[in-house]
Amino acid sequence: MKKNILTYEGLKKYEDELQDLKVVKRKEVAQKIKEAREQGDLSENAEYDAAKDEQRDIEARIEELEKILKNVEVVVEDEADLDRVSIGCKVKILDVEFDEELEYKIVGSTEADSLAGKISNESPVGNALLGARIGDTVEVEAPQGGVLEYKVLAIDRSKETLIKSTF
Predict the structure, then answer these.
(1) Residue 109 has pLDDT above 80, yes or no
(2) Which of 111, 129, 155, 165 can pair with 107 through a Cys bridge, CB separation 3.0 to 4.6 Å?
(3) Euclidean distance between CA atoms 99 and 103, whole angstroms
(4) Which helix (DSSP H) or strand (DSSP E) does residue 154 occupy?
(5) Share of residues in the chain with pLDDT > 90 (%)
(6) pLDDT at position 166, please?
(7) Torsion angle of alpha carbons 49, 54, 58, 59, nearest 10°?
(8) How is residue 158 annotated by DSSP?
(9) φ, ψ at 138 (rounded to 5°)
């Protein structure tokens, strides 16, 4: 079974969500079901159907989170080697073609969220950046064909510690 790679931040997020679903959301939906039952005939009761659907969604998410957390490997970001890009690092890169600086945090696929600047170690860009050093240029096969080039400008553990390029 594949390991789910998470940062401590991701682990805490999933543990908190699981706790909330089990303790708060289950009780809320149980109360909704109880109230809907008290209205009588369940065959045409939209509130009952909606509450049962919500209950099914909550239980599915609980099962999914438990599966993720059961087989997790936590990356200790504070121990990340800042000489090379690795999971848990923030990396500032230059898109060579568009002369645009981008900043990403490399995370496991479970935690990836491109809108939040978190890219998976399994994504084409994330995978290409793994192991790269400051000053290195990596090439990524573009889905529509062609090659994208990114130059590593900085590797960062957190906002306080940034190692910048001297190139």
Answers:
(1) yes
(2) 111
(3) 13
(4) strand 147-156
(5) 75
(6) 40
(7) 10
(8) S
(9) -110, 150
| Residue 106 zone, left/alpha/beta (φ > 0; ψ -120 to 50; rest) | beta
CA distance 103 to 55: 39
- Mean pLDDT along residues 129-156: 94
Where does the pLDDT of residue 81 fall: very low under 50, low under 70, confident under 90, or very high at 90 and above?
A: confident
Decide: helix, strand or coil at residue 81: coil
Q: So what's the pLDDT on residue 79?
A: 76
SS3 144: coil
**136's torsion region: left (phi>0), alpha (psi -120 to 50) or beta?**
beta
Question: Rounded mean pLDDT of the chain?
Answer: 90
Strand runs labelled E in 22-61: none
Instruction: Yes or no: say if 26 and 58 are a contact pair by the CB < 8 Å rule.
Output: yes
**141: how many CB neighbours lie within 10 A of its CB?**
11
CA dist., res. 53 & res. 46, Å (int): 10
CA-CA distances (angstroms) from residue 40 to 20, 31, 43? Answer: 30, 15, 9
Q: How far, in Å, CA of 158 to CA of 144, rounded?
A: 34
